[in-house]
């Protein structure tokens, strides 16, 4: 393969890096409306990347001495990440303008973060993985504090930064231990070196545990979830949408790859940790959300719970598990985009709706929005025939194939508990008397309306034609 | 005509009607259109399902009207529906009660009529679909989807404590049914099939069977409901609007009995044999305990709700006797209870619409003002008690006969239940209908109007029809029941 210049440009990550820089310059030099202009350019740039990922014209060249790798699993998650950040940028565009937060840095930072995630997903080396995680995290720390004059936002950003830095430190320490005991940072070499061992020695186990702790922080699995509700609540809602959707997808992809690739032969060692994280996340996510009155906090706990189910699929560690995570993350993404598309456009007389009580009577004043929200809630609770059920269904198929009966039973019990708080939102919208103090103002750009309608239709009618997603998910391999 | 997907049309016709209703504007004219559209949709569905009954071949023991479309290709789940002797009458019961429910809500529902009618038609689709499913995943999806419209019906149009009741209903039954999901996946993992018809037999090791049986028990025992899992039922019944109670008692409780027959008896015969004493004890406790609880109620709906639990106790005894009389009796009792309890709730609805209270002590002497109502109510009351000639008699009699073949102790328990039902029902009737009118508010109460007669007379006819000609119902189901019993006896080496 000739390393000609054009091929370098077609590597998705390089292309994104260059495009992001162009966006940055464009934003800097455009005098008026810099936010809108940069956002539009960013959207166009991001739309190009999935094609590069999908057609992938430079496969062999892009590995750079095995620092990166590629597979259908990686491709799928890269595309999911890009689609996720595209959608969040679209649905939050209007919100930023209305909140007078329209700075052109926002799309740039989102793009840098997305770039970090792309590199992270396809990394094949501990060092690359660490650097990619840092790239995405640093952008996210800034984004959390983007509302500079708000104490709440600053607090959440600092919290996120301190805890995130701590977890990165732990992660890095784990990497050094693994490097120290295997003599390599490459996933393949680690796999080969520890494949010769009968069981992991103490140093490697420590390394493994530290890395899993660091990654658990990134996916916000219990007990490393503390930052999630505060950051979700403090950050502007559009940034929360990004936090809830995109980094979760990337972190889930990397935790799967880390467990199944270098440590694939040591299932017993890491599965105990994953099973614990999974049970703790499902139950804490279900129980802690009951007491919440803030929608964003509630969604934070809900996402913690969803991560618990994803980790069941990881604990299954089989082909069904891979299929389950592909289906689950896809479903997770569309449910979250849909709910944030509503939250980012729904205003009551007190400003943007953030409290659950403020939804009372929504079903009467905006029946379609109420119905959409009800469908999303049923779907998140995993009640058939909505799409959320199928995500959980495939997770349990994977788990029971591995013989994880107790874990599955705990999983379904947690899903019953969590059904309570999803139902509570429906209750507030449909059962409660209408609170006449709230005049709803639902103003939504036609792009996000299109996204919302499209996603609601997918959620509702997936049951009639599941084969498209399912057969695609069956073809994905790690 | 043979290629015509009759069953799918029956399943999805109400849903299509529901979507059409969603388009109609909810203004004064639109409301009337919505009501009529819902009514004619459900009538159309009922007529089609009668066609199903007419074309049903009683001598054929396998599924009929089978349709199969590939659905989840990777796992070999199919959209696979069909009807056999057991599901046929459950479908008929659903399609029969839905138009009556819509008629019953004609005046009593005044807010959110569009959503209400949509919920009912959606519920009808889901109920029919559940009884017609041959694929287990399809069955499960319908089984759980039932919760959504029912939750909304109780929660939006219910009484004072509707929120509590709707949450209790939803979470309680969800808790039961999620365990069934685990059981279904285990079945799929062991056999590689989700086909209910293929799995009738003895395909699982004994220990697996016991695990699966308990998981199925969790969902069906909550649904039917058996003592001590019945506590959601009185709340849900009392708070639901009249039509909601009708569907709840008439059809949703039958889902539990249907599930026991299909899954516990049909697929897990060894475990069923193992658990028979357990079921019998629970059923007899249910019959006696809830009968006494019913006797002590001051709310009419609550009394009927508890009597449902007692009657369903007779059904579970009949099912788990696993002999010809027992199962036929249980099936007939389910049909009869579906009609009679629905009718009783409608009767309560009639006086509730007039007086807005369900307290027994409020009423008394209604016979003086409402002679027609009193006569109709009496027929249903006697059917509930099990008077010969009414529907209640045949089912209860068959179950008691079957029970005597099994153990006279159980037969005595079941018979005791029948006697106790006479006690609380007659006592209820005496307090509401007989005597002189003491309460001044009742002075001007009106007898049934045309719409209410239109609702109650078909129910009277069907009560008498089941009571006098039980064979037209028993013949179609006989083959299916024999298959289940033969399977059970082979599996248990009898």
TrEMBL record, chain B:
Q: Which InterPro entries match?
A: NADH4_N, NADH_Q_OxRdtase_chainM/4, NADH_UbQ_OxRdtase, ND/Mrp_TM
| GO terms, molecular function | NADH dehydrogenase (ubiquinone) activity; NADH dehydrogenase activity; ubiquinone binding
Tell me what topology the record assigns in the membrane: Multi-pass membrane protein
* Coiled-coil intervals, chain numbering: none
Ranges where the NADH:quinone oxidoreductase/Mrp antiporter transmembrane domain occurs: 134-416
Domain NADH:ubiquinone oxidoreductase chain 4 N-terminal: from-to ranges: 59-126
Q: Does the keyword Transmembrane apply?
A: yes
GO BP terms? ATP synthesis coupled electron transport; electron transport coupled proton transport
Subcellular localization is given as: Membrane
Q: Which family does it belong to?
A: Belongs to the complex I subunit 4 family.
Its recorded name reads NADH:quinone oxidoreductase/Mrp antiporter membrane subunit domain-containing protein
Species this chain originates from? marine metagenome
Organism lineage: unclassified sequences, metagenomes, ecological metagenomes
């Amino acid at each position: 393969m000739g390393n000609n210049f054009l091929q370098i440009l077609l590597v998705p990550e390089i292309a994104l890096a260059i495009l992001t820089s162009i966006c940055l310059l464009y934003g800097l030099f455009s005098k008026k409306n810099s936010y809108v202009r940069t956002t539009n350019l960013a959207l166009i740039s991001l739309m190009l990347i999935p094609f590069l990922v999908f057609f992938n014209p430079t496969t062999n060249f892009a590995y750079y001495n095995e620092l990166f790798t590629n597979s259908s699993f990686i491709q799928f998650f890269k595309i999911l990440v890009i689609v996720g950040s595209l959608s969040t940028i679209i649905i939050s565009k209007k919100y930023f303008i209305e909140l007078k937060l329209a700075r052109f840095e926002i799309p740039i930072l989102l793009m840098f973060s997305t770039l970090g995630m792309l590199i992270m997903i396809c990394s094949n080396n501990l060092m690359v993985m660490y650097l990619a995680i840092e790239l995405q995290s640093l952008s996210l720390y800034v984004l959390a504090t983007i509302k500079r004059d708000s104490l709440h936002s600053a607090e959440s950003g600092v919290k996120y930064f301190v805890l995130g830095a701590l977890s990165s430190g732990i992660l890095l320490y784990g990497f050094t231990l693994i490097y120290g005991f295997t003599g390599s940072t490459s996933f393949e070499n680690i796999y080969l070196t520890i494949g010769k061992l009968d069981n992991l020695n103490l140093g490697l186990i420590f390394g493994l545990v530290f890395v899993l702790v660091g990654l658990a922080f990134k996916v916000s699995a219990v007990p490393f979830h503390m930052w999630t509700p505060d950051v979700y609540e403090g950050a502007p809602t559009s940034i929360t949408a990004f936090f809830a959707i995109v980094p979760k997808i990337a972190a889930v992809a990397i935790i799967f790859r880390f467990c199944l690739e270098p440590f694939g032969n040591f299932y017993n060692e890491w599965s105990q940790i994953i099973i614990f994280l999974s049970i703790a996340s499902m139950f804490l996510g279900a129980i802690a959300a009951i007491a919440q009155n803030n929608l964003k906090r509630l969604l934070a706990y809900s996402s913690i719970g969803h991560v618990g189910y994803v980790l069941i699929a990881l604990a299954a560690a089989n082909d069904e598990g891979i299929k389950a995570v592909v289906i689950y993350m896809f479903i997770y993404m569309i449910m979250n985009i849909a709910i944030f598309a509503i939250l980012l456009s729904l205003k009551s007389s007190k400003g943007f709706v953030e409290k659950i009580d403020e939804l009372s009577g929504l079903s009467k004043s905006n029946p379609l929005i109420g119905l959409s929200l009800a469908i999303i809630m049923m779907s998140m609770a995993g009640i058939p025939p909505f799409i959320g059920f199928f995500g959980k269904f495939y997770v349990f198929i994977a788990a029971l194939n591995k013989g994880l009966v107790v874990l599955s039973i705990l999983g379904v019990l947690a899903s019953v508990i969590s059904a309570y708080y999803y139902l509570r939102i429906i209750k507030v919208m449909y059962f409660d008397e209408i609170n006449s103090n709230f005049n709803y103002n639902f103003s939504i750009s036609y792009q996000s309306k299109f996204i919302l309608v499209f996603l609601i239709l997918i959620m509702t009618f997936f049951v009639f034609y599941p084969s498209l997603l399912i057969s695609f998910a069956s073809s994905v391999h790690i | 005509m043979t290629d015509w997907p009759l069953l799918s049309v029956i399943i999805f016709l109400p849903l299509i009607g529901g979507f059409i209703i969603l388009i109609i504007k909810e203004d004064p004219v639109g409301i009337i259109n919505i009501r009529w559209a819902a009514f004619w949709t459900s009538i159309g569905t009922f007529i089609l399902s009668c066609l199903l009954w007419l074309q049903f071949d009683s001598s054929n023991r396998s599924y009929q009207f089978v349709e199969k479309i590939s659905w989840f290709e990777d796992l070999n789940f199919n959209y696979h529906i069909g009807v056999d002797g057991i599901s046929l009458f459950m479908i008929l019961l659903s399609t029969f009660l839905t138009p009556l429910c819509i008629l019953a809500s004609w005046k009593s529902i005044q807010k959110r009529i569009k959503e209400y009618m949509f919920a009912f038609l959606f519920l009808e689709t889901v109920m029919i679909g559940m009884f017609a499913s041959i694929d287990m995943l399809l069955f499960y999806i319908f089984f759980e989807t039932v919760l959504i419209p029912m939750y909304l019906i109780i929660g939006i149009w219910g009484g004072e404590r509707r929120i509590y009741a709707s949450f209790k209903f939803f979470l309680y039954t969800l808790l039961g049914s999620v365990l069934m999901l685990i059981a279904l996946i285990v079945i799929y993992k062991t056999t590689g099939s989700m086909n209910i018809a293929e799995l009738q037999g003895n395909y699982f090791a004994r220990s697996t069977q016991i695990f699966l049986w308990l998981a199925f028990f969790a969902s069906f025992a909550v649904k039917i409901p058996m003592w001590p899992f019945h506590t959601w039922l009185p709340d849900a019944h009392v708070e639901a609007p009249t039509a909601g109670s009708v569907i709840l008692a008439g059809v949703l409780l039958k889902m539990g009995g249907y599930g026991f027959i299909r899954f516990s008896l049909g697929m897990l015969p060894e475990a069923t044999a193992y658990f028979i004493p357990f079921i019998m004890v629970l059923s007899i406790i249910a019959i006696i305990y809830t009968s006494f609880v019913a006797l002590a109620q001051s709310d009419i709906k609550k009394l009927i709700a508890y009597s449902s639990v007692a009657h369903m106790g007779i059904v579970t005894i009949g099912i788990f006797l696993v002999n010809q009389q027992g199962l036929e009796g249980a099936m007939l009792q389910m049909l009869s209870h579906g009609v009679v309890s629905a009718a009783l709730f409608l009767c309560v609805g009639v006086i509730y619409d007039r007086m807005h209270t369900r307290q027994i002590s409020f009423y008394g002497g209604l016979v003086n003002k409402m002679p027609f109502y009193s006569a109709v109510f009496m027929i249903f009351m006697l059917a509930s008690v099990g008077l010969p000639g009414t529907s209640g008699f045949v089912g209860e009699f068959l179950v008691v006969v079957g029970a005597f073949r099994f153990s006279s102790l159980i037969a005595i328990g079941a018979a005791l239940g029948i006697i106790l039902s006479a006690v609380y029902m007659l006592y209820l009737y005496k307090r509401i209908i007989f005597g002189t009118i003491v309460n001044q508010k009742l002075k001007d109460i009106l007898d049934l109007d045309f719409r209410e007669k239109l609702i109650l007379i078909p129910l009277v006819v069907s009560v008498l029809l089941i009571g006098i000609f039980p064979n037209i119902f028993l013949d179609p189901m006989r083959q299916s029941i024999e298959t289940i019993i033969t399977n059970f006896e082979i599996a248990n080496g009898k």
